[in-house]
Amino acid sequence: MLSLKNYTIEYASKQVTLPANASITIQVTEISNNVSFIVLQVHTFLYPVTLKYTNDITNNNNVNGTNIGLVKFTKLKSTLIFYLRSFHNWKIHALIAAVGYTDKSPVPGGCALASPTEMAPYLDINYTDSIISVNGGPSSYNSTTYCNKTSGVKYTFYHTFVPEWDFTEETYFTSILNMMTYDSVIYRSLVALEAPTGPILQRLFSSYPGIGRVFTIVATAPSGAVSVYVPTFTYSCNITINTDSCGLPMTTFVKVENALLAFVGLFICFKGHRYYHTNLFVMGSVTGTFVSYVLLTKFLPTEVDFIMIATVIGMVFGVIWTSTWWCLHSPILSVVIPLLNCCCLITAILYSIIRDLLPVFESDINYWITFFSVSLMFLFLSLPRPLSSNISACCVIGAFMTIVPIAISVGSSIAYVFINVIRRATVKGFNLANTEFPTQVPGEYMQAFWFLFLYIQIIVTVFMSYFIAFFENIVFVFPRRVNELLHRTYAQRVVLDTVLWLFAILLIWLGRWRQMAQAKNRPPFPPTPVVLRRDDPEERVNRDVHDENTSLMADANYPNYTLASESTTAG
């Protein structure tokens, strides 16, 4: 039983436990006279139930699902009755809520003629691995039966995210309660902008499996009165059995590839610019993998997993790209791929910020022309300084390659910065999708981790530049032929780097050992007095020059201080 006696709170809600195979009656009582119709909502976690107008199931009198609702006009009645049925052999937790509206408010879903019920205040939601589709029915206004598309009712889609990888009932019901009333929706959710060419009552969203999302529609009448559709919820995956389906399928190959990607990312971040040929191979392999995956997915729409095939093709392309150095010996041509990868990543980050704010990018032509134009602009600005640009590109790409496997493991959405670009190239209709992704605690940690990598790499690069330059100057005392070998032989360059690192560690250890030896042989420093002043040597004529304390204070390692209250005056 739900009471609307205190209508000022806008709705009444109650959490109940449905017995196995139960049929219960829901009574909404003490309805105020100014309430024209009631929207009764039922939300269950994972398992669908059936909500009915009558006790019997007939055509157009019931709806089945996990986020459902029915509209019933009061007709000046103070009590309305609904019926709820569960067909499961176990108990189910449910949230029941009743929301009242006046006759000035539009009836949500009042003109949804294609729905299972005559009036459908609920939303139809479908999802794939890439896209979430949310659909609603048009509202009626000023009449219970008359539907007019030009009635002037405006629709605004809202959505919000729940904490990543939070599959608890408490969070589920709380997030739905926060989307039931207009004030709460405005305060706690985000607006999903309307696509210029899409249906008015349909929105597409990029799918982020494992991240719960709540959707609703607010219908606004010309008079300013509003009504809220029944909110709907999805994790973009099926967690009824387990939550493993909400992440990337962690096969043995994927685990090995993630570990290898993180290791290679660390290497590229800190040492990629010094091991030139290895850097060429890795950057060429990454580029070949992404390009081949896009082409295979786009033109071979089968159920085959193209990740392994694309990886092999990428490695072949890496070998081919490395051979360009042996054939052409062109440093500019060789650094094009690392710089282009870095520029594409930076452009993808910019797109993730402004994509949903500029409807002009709905057109694939506008999107890709702008994407590659911005990437090439960054590339041409970087080419005049190929060495420093290559170091920066290695840092950015290597750090991103390192955090992506970690982000996939902890459920962070930062990896979707580039995944959305791949979806735009491979998924039909993704140009209409809202690509906004949540910035929550795991994502913030990953961003901080990324910036930390960049900062550490800059410090290491600057240090090694000065350190290696110092020791490479020493190499010039050797014969010229030895010097050329050290710079031209790749294996000897690796040995040189290793020797320099070991020599640096040896110097640091020797310096530390010398400090410890000096500290061991040094006499203890006398306690610091409360008030100190510099002691005048001419005022020490009355002191015993052979006194042990005076000898200590005269040590060259310490300044001569005495207590101001104990100083003597000559004369």
From TrEMBL:
It holds the Pfam family Ig_TM7SF3_N. Residues 259-460 form the TM7S3/TM198-like domain. GO terms for cellular component: plasma membrane. GO terms for biological process: negative regulation of programmed cell death. Its main location: membrane. It is a multi-pass membrane protein. Keywords: Membrane, Transmembrane, Transmembrane helix. It is found in: Membrane. It comes from the Eukaryota. InterPro entries: TM7S3/TM198-like_dom, TM7SF3. This is DUF4203 domain-containing protein.
